[in-house]
Design a protein that fits this description.
Elements: E1 2-4, H1 7-14, E2 27-30, H2 39-53, E3 58-61, H3 65-77, E4 82-85, H4 87-99, H5 103-119, H6 142-153, H7 156-162, H8 168-179, H9 186-209, H10 215-220, H11 229-246, H12 260-273, H13 286-291, H14 297-306, H15 309-320, H16 324-332
Parallel strand pairs: 3-4
Antiparallel strand pairs: 1-2
Length: about 350
């Protein structure tokens, strides 16, 4: 899926309102089910789109290997195009770089998992650690860190009110038994909290204000409470990201820094398609195109008058083929004439 927004609309409407892109701000430029996403194929699709809509000023995407290769191949032939690394993925990668190799953080995550399993269906289940996603976990690590900080700072009186069936002494012993391990991570939790705070701060800044050559100065002027060597290095890495990305832009020009709108539209599609009996990518992807449209009565009237159902059905059959549900019905639906009575 490739979405587009005009520079004129971005500068006149989105940036002045200090907000991120909304679904109706963008246009769906390309939508295709692909058997392969090799870089050469991605480049080919971008070239085909260029022939239809013209050269883009900027491309924002993550650094997925195939996508990145395809975009770089395209940019090598169109040197004026700016390729920007999506800030959300960039910050998640910085967190992963620091935490994936941290024995302390990995043991903390393991302890959280063990604690969650131990507290299931117990009177303390309401304060168990949040569940962790199997994938994209470094996009949402603040859930665990916030849980730990709030639990460590929660007054015992509050927990007593929420667990009235236990006497204070027994409850206190249970809390020590189940959560005493958190004290071993207090110092690190504060550091991790600051790392997350910095990533969320720069994400909010760039998503609301866009990115330009002043973005580094704006972030440098922000104060963060904890100062350790690790935090200093992490902050430097964020500044380096801003410097590398903003150096591509003309002076006094502001551009987009995130492709979150793609994730948002895919999220809406997944929510809608979750009601399907079979998980497959087929005709349901056409709902994606509806997300970016502002419907009017006239538009719907013109569509009904100009598009025949038979033509739509034939096109859908040619593009998507027979659906999994239809195939299943063909196999398992038995007519009365085929029924054998013994």
């Amino acid at each position: 899926m490739i979405l587009g927004v005009s520079q004129q609309y971005l500068e006149s409407t989105v940036l002045p309102e200090k907000r991120g892109l909304k679904h109706h701000d963008v246009q769906l430029l390309a939508l295709e089910i692909m058997d392969s996403t090799r870089g050469e194929i991605i480049e080919q699709k971008l070239c085909e789109l260029t022939n239809m809509v013209g050269h883009p000023i900027q491309i924002i995407a993550d650094h997925g290997s195939d996508i990145e290769k395809g975009i770089k191949l395209y940019c090598s032939k169109h040197s004026s195009v700016i390729y920007t690394y999506d800030v959300t993925h960039a910050m998640a990668l910085l967190l992963k770089h620091e935490l994936a190799t941290s024995e302390k953080y990995q043991s903390f995550v393991q302890k959280c998992n063990q604690c969650r399993h131990q507290l299931q269906q117990t009177e303390l289940s309401f304060i168990s650690p949040p569940s962790q996603r199997a994938s994209c976990r470094y996009f949402n690590i603040e859930k665990l860190i916030n849980w730990a900080q709030k639990l460590l700072n929660c007054p015992i009186e509050t927990l007593l009110k929420l667990a009235p069936t236990s006497d204070p002494e027994t409850l206190n012993q249970k809390l020590i038994m189940k959560f005493g391990w958190l004290r071993d991570y207090q110092e690190e939790i504060c550091i991790w909290e600051q790392m997350v705070l910095m990533t969320r701060t720069i994400e909010a800044q760039l998503k609301i204000n866009g990115i330009n050559q002043q973005s580094r100065i704006e972030f440098e002027n922000k104060q963060f409470p904890t100062s350790t060597n690790l935090i200093s290095v992490f902050r430097h890495n964020i500044l380096e990201y801003i410097t590398i990305e903003s150096s591509q832009f003309p002076v006094e020009k502001t551009f987009l820094a995130t492709s979150d709108i793609i994730e948002s539209i895919f999220g809406k599609y997944k929510h809608f398609s979750s009601r399907c009996p079979f998980k497959q990518i087929g005709q349901m992807i056409l709902n994606i195109s509806l997300c970016t449209m502002n419907f009017t009565g006239l538009m719907i009237k013109e569509a009904l008058e100009n598009v025949r159902y038979l033509d739509l059905k034939a096109w859908s059959s040619q593009v998507f083929g027979q659906s999994t549900l239809s195939k299943r019905k063909t196999v398992f639906s038995t007519s009365i004439d085929d029924t054998v009575i013994v």
